């Protein structure tokens, strides 16, 4: 029987066979919360409760950080639940991103051809459409691409690759701006996609993509951003060589705070007139100094995972009834990393995409935040830890009745009142 994932032995960026398993994290169900339950592709799998290894690998040839166990993209994206418009603050971020791209282009946008790879519901393309651009999105999820078209955003339902690019060049001509926000890291065959982008990119056009920054994932301990949708954790050092080998060049890189730490990368043809910003080499040198061209950074990350798990175990000892807050794809990583699948009795989420999180031998119901007052628990594990200052003050009644919120990252903290005063539970901290 065909498995819903495969294990690759070559680097998904440079293709070398020098791929080293450097950090074991956990195992996850291959169906993430972003996958719709009515997907016939998913439901047809006989091994629906299969757990897939989530290990970080590093290519010792180009130093690219990546996963090697790859879930079938047809399963992940054909019937996709996640929509850009429901993410807190993301639409506003894309407005800022639009301003930055417009500034880089440096000329009137009216009439420019703009393509977005993985355009989702068209939230980002809408800014370019309103500026007078000719826009086109390419989005594989049928339900979401249909929603984008209904909103007036021309969208092709397909996966973008070199074949798609050839068809688009014939039908639409070259594109002045090509966008890919938090998409490139989700693609296994990066080389084929970038070849397609190079093929349809105008002579002085620019390819702009945003992606989680691998340095920030490790240094800021963003372990919940590691899951099977995210195949790559990009750093500038391997990306620079990758593009240069394809007659392209990185002309600028901007560090941005999105998703805990990301980069916005500007790429043009190697013979384009724009000179590369000093920021590119600055980040390369920083990565080399910090050990991201070796395994030292990964060894430190592995130690931090073990220490963090020990802290969580101590804090949860003696807590009989535990709920969770936040039901995202990152929640699944933490749920399995901390071995909470049989301890969390329900998960609160005020914008759920499903009615439960499920895996082998468990199904955890997803309810609204008001459920904390209706069915009190000893502690709430805040999977959505980035939004603690928004979530915790809304539940003063629960806290006043003796409840507590446990924030797992980037270090373990316990909150017992709405003022967000807390006790840190680092390894050497005094227990209450």
Distance between the termini: 52 Å
Helix content: 25-40%
* Largest beta-sheet characterization: 8 strands, mixed
- Taken together, the total number of domains comes to 3
What descriptive keywords fit this protein?
Rossmann fold; alpha/beta; 432 residues; disordered C terminus; 8-stranded mixed β-sheet; 3 domains
How would you sum up this structure, described in words?
There is one protein chain. It contains 15 helices and 21 strands. It has 432 residues and is an alpha/beta fold. It folds into three domains: 5-72, no CATH class; 84-294, Rossmann fold (3-Layer(aba) Sandwich), CATH 3.40.50; 320-424, 3-Layer(aba) Sandwich (Rossmann fold), CATH 3.40.50.720. It is 31% helix and 26% strand. The strands form four sheets. Strands 16-17-15-14-18-19-20-21 form an eight-stranded mixed beta sheet, with no helix packed on it. The radius of gyration is 22 Å and the shape is globular.
């Amino acid at each position: 029987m065909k498995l819903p994932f495969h294990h690759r032995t070559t680097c998904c960026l440079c293709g070398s066979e020098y791929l080293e398993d450097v950090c074991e994290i956990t195992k996850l169900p291959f169906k993430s919360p972003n996958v719709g339950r009515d997907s016939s592709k998913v439901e047809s799998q006989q091994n629906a409760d299969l757990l897939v290894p989530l290990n970080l690998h590093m290519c010792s040839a180009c130093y690219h950080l990546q996963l090697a166990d790859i879930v079938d993209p047809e399963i992940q994206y054909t019937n996709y639940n996640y929509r850009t418009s429901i993410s807190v603050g993301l639409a506003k971020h894309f407005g800022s991103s639009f301003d930055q791209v417009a500034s880089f282009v440096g000329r009137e946008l009216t009439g420019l051809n703009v393509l977005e790879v993985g355009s989702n519901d068209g939230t980002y393309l809408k800014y370019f459409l309103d500026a007078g651009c000719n826009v086109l999105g390419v989005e594989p999820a049928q339900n979401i691409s249909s929603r984008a078209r209904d909103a007036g955003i021309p969208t092709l339902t397909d996966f973008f690759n070199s074949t798609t690019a050839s068809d688009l060049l014939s039908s639409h001509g070259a594109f002045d701006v090509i966008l890919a926000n938090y998409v490139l890291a989700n693609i296994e065959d990066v080389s084929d996609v970038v070849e397609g982008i190079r093929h349809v990119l105008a002579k002085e056009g620019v390819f702009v993509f945003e992606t989680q920054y691998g340095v920030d994932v490790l240094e800021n301990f963003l372990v919940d951003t590691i899951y099977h949708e995210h195949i790559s954790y990009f750093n500038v050092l391997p990306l620079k060589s990758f593009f240069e080998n394809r007659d392209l060049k990185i002309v600028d890189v901007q560090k941005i705070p999105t998703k805990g730490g990301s980069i916005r990368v500007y790429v043009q043809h190697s013979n384009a007139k724009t000179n590369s910003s000093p920021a590119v080499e600055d980040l390369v040198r920083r990565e080399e100094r910090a050990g991201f061209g070796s395994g030292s950074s990964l060894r430190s990350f592995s130690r931090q995972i073990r220490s963090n798990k020990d802290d969580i175990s101590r804090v949860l000892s003696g807590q009989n009834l535990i709920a969770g807050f936040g039901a995202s794809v990152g929640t699944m990583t933490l749920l399995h990393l901390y071995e909470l699948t049989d301890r969390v009795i329900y998960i609160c989420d005020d914008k759920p995409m499903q009615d439960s999180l499920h895996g082998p031998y468990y199904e955890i119901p997803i309810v609204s935040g008001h459920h904390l007052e209706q069915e009190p628990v000893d502690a709430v594990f805040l999977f959505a830890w980035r939004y603690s200052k928004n979530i915790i003050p809304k539940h003063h009644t629960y806290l006043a009745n003796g409840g507590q919120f446990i924030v797992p990252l980037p270090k373990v903290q316990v909150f017992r009142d709405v003022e967000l005063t807390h006790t840190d539970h680092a390894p050497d901290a005094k227990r209450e």
